[in-house]
Design brief:
The protein is of the alpha+beta class and 164 residues long. 15% of the residues lie in helices and 49% in strands.
Length: 164
């Protein structure tokens, strides 16, 4: 597992997809890109998707993601994306009361139990006390990261930024 913090944008693309039965159907798919602005997010998803989609497609939505960190898995079976809500527990030294700070993450896994395992694997390396509040599968098809030095976006499986 590796983890990456960045400015993530969720984008939706609508296009005609050839289904398994050979029929054409209009579909809307969701992707995540690493970008500094809406304009960069739009340019990135256009560049990425132009090599996968033949014909016309339309960006129907771009919005900042509710998470800033993503946990990536290198396992081929981990082909789904889960949104995880964690609460970090701290004790206020003055009042001696428990405080909880909520943080959202995106986790790559094959199943819901595997997503929880990946969260525990990454968070186990930290000193923070945490509680997993919820984990839910998303409709996200793929995540595209920006890699410094190349000026291009690449799929998450190509080059890890750092390993844990």
């Amino acid at each position: 597992m590796r983890s990456r913090t960045a400015n993530w944008f969720e984008t939706k693309i609508r296009y005609e997809k050839t289904m398994e039965d050979g029929l054409e159907k209009k579909v809307t798919e969701q992707y995540v890109v690493d970008a500094l602005s809406f304009t960069e997010a739009e340019a990135s998803i256009l560049e990425e998707m132009s090599s996968y989609i033949s014909g016309e497609f339309k960006i129907t939505d771009i919005k900042p993601a509710a998470y800033s960190e993503i946990f990536f898995s290198e396992a081929p079976a981990d082909d789904r994306w889960y949104k995880a809500k964690l609460q970090f527990i701290t004790i206020d030294e003055k009042t001696e009361k428990e405080k909880r700070a909520t943080v959202n993450y995106l986790v790559q896994a094959g199943t819901l139990p595997m997503a929880v395992k990946h969260i525990d694997e990454v968070m186990g390396t930290t000193m923070n006390d945490y509680v997993i509040v919820s984990v839910a599968e998303t409709q996200i098809m793929d995540v595209f990261e920006h890699h410094a030095g190349t000026g291009k976006k690449e799929e998450v499986d190509d080059k890890p930024e750092y390993e844990e």
